[in-house]
């Protein structure tokens, strides 16, 4: 008896790229990739042809030219003779500074507001609800302008401090609040100052390790270790001990009124304060809703079980509810951090020299290199966004459920 034989099993034919479900998706993805590359190549070639026809070319040599403009607040040494590249770096640092400060402050505000919105106290819960609805439904640019206007209109000019005793016109004789910004003491490091800083950083690491050890002991053995007083002791005692043993190697440079402005100390400009506060309060309202949603996602049985063990409400929230709620809170929190970074580009509205104001504003207008400046801006925001996402995703993975 004869029988027809099928093609040898495992043999590959080109028709399988379309007919076989094992390869069909890869085939279509490869075709889509080729079409995308062809489209991008066409657009780039068309751009280069148009630039050549207009007598233009893409060049980044303008970054080495003198900028010719001043920046009101800079963490780096900078003047009008510095290059456009240095101006761009100053703008990048200013952007990272305000984004970092706003992320920290918005997180603190958002967590507090989100927890208090679920408070059993009717007045507190309603006040937090009013805060959330009021701030998240008004554009952040409006809040930036409002806060900046209040700072410049309410606070006195530096000249108002003239003729008054420093102790009566300044807070503790060291802090000056003016319509130009806030002046605070600046640390001056002498020999041994670095050792004090290292000791302080080591104390922060010890606090983190101790609190983590206390949590592990509680979860593993039910042993409640003290946290508050060891935290306070580690924060102050080692640093102060090293500070006095080395003969006070760190002093303070206090701001003093000289001429028409304050000299010495550190100036935190009004534009930075306005942008920082506006981004923090505005984004904090969104984070508060994320926190509230994360807490409500936790079963009430978890809270009741913790309370039945005799845990106080504060410990129930810190040890039981919030650690589980983080799995719901972190993913949208990443988006809020990205929004803070991108919304910082509104700094130009109050004259804060971020990267959009320097590279994408003054430098672009002076050099006429619009394509190059926009490409660099896109590269910066893409890079910083990917870095924030990568770091937060690592943290998100650490708090996610570990399946066996």
Q: Characteristics of this structure?
A:
single chain; 404 residues; mainly alpha; MetI-like fold; three-stranded antiparallel beta sheet; two-stranded antiparallel sheet; 65% helix; globular; disordered N terminus
What do you see in this structure?
There is one protein chain. Helices cover 65% and strands 6% of the residues. The longest helix is centred in the first third of the chain and has 33 residues, at 21-53. The chain is built from 13 helices and seven strands. Among the domains are: 84-152 and 270-399, MetI-like fold (Orthogonal Bundle); 189-249. It is mostly helical. A three-stranded antiparallel β-sheet has the order 1-2-7. A two-stranded antiparallel ribbon has the order 3-4.
SSE diagram, text form:
Blueprint: H1 16-19, H2 21-53, H3 84-116, H4 122-136, H5 140-154, H6 166-169, E1 176-178, E2 181-184, E3 186-189, H7 193-221, H8 228-245, E4 250-253, E5 256-258, E6 261-263, E7 266-269, H9 270-296, H10 300-308, H11 313-343, H12 355-367, H13 370-399
Short description:
With 404 residues, the chain is mostly helical.
Per CATH, the superfamily of the domain at 84-152 and 270-399 is MetI-like
Our count of helices gives: 13
Tell me the Rg in angstroms.
29 Å
Write out the strand line-up for the largest beta sheet, numbering strands in chain order.
Answer: 1-2-7
CATH class of the domain at 84-152 and 270-399: Mainly Alpha
Largest sheet: 3 strands, antiparallel
Q: Count the strands?
A: 7
Compute the average pLDDT: 86
Residue stretches low in confidence (pLDDT < 50, at least 5 long) are 1-7
Structural class comes to mainly alpha
Oligomer: single chain
Alpha-carbon distance between the two ends: 54 Å
Q: Helix fraction?
A: 55-70%
From the spread of the alpha carbons, the general shape counts as globular
Instruction: Please tell me the CATH architecture of the domain at 84-152 and 270-399 by its name.
Output: Orthogonal Bundle
Q: Which fold name fills CATH's third level, the topology of the domain at 84-152 and 270-399?
A: MetI-like fold
Give the SSE string. HHHHHHEEEHHEEEEHHHHH
Q: Strand portion, in percent?
A: 5-15%
């Amino acid at each position: 008896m004869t029988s027809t034989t099928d093609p040898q099993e495992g043999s590959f034919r080109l028709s399988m790229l379309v007919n076989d479900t094992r390869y069909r998706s890869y085939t279509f993805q490869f075709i889509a990739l080729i079409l995308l590359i062809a489209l991008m190549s066409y657009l780039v070639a068309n751009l280069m042809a148009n630039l050549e026809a207009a007598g233009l070319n893409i060049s980044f040599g303008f970054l080495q030219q003198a900028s010719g403009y001043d920046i009101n607040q800079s963490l780096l040494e900078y003047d009008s003779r510095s290059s456009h590249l240095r101006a761009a770096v100053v703008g990048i640092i200013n952007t990272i500074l305000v984004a970092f400060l706003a992320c920290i402050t918005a997180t603190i505000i958002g967590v507090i507001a989100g927890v208090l919105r679920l408070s059993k106290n009717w007045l507190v819960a309603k006040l937090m609800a009013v805060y959330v609805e009021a701030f998240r439904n008004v554009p952040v640019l409006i809040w930036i302008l409002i806060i900046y206007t209040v700072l410049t209109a309410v606070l006195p000019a530096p000249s108002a401090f003239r003729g008054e005793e420093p102790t009566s016109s300044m807070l503790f004789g060291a802090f000056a609040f003016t319509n130009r910004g806030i002046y605070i003491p600046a640390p001056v490091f002498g020999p041994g100052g670095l050792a004090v800083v290292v000791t302080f950083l080591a104390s922060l690491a010890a606090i983190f390790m101790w609190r983590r050890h206390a949590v592990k002991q509680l979860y593993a053995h039910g042993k409640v270790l003290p946290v508050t007083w060891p935290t306070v002791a580690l924060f102050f005692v080692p640093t102060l001990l090293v500070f006095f043993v080395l003969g006070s190697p760190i002093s303070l440079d206090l701001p003093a009124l000289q001429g028409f402005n304050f000299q010495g100390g550190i100036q935190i400009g009004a534009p930075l304060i306005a942008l920082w506060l506006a981004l923090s309060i505005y984004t904090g309202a969104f984070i508060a809703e994320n926190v509230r949603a994360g807490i409500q996602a936790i079963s009430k049985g978890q809270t009741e079980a913790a309370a039945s063990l005799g845990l106080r409400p504060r410990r129930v929230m810190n040890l039981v509810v919030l650690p589980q709620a983080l799995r719901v809170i972190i993913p949208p929190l990443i988006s809020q951090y990205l929004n803070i970074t991108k919304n910082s580009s509104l700094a130009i509205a109050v004259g804060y020299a971020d990267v959009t104001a320097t590279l994408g504003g003054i430098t672009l207008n002076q050099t006429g290199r619009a394509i190059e400046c926009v490409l660099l801006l896109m590269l910066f925001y893409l890079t910083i966004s990917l870095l924030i996402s990568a770091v937060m995703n690592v943290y998100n993975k650490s708090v996610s459920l570990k399946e066996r």
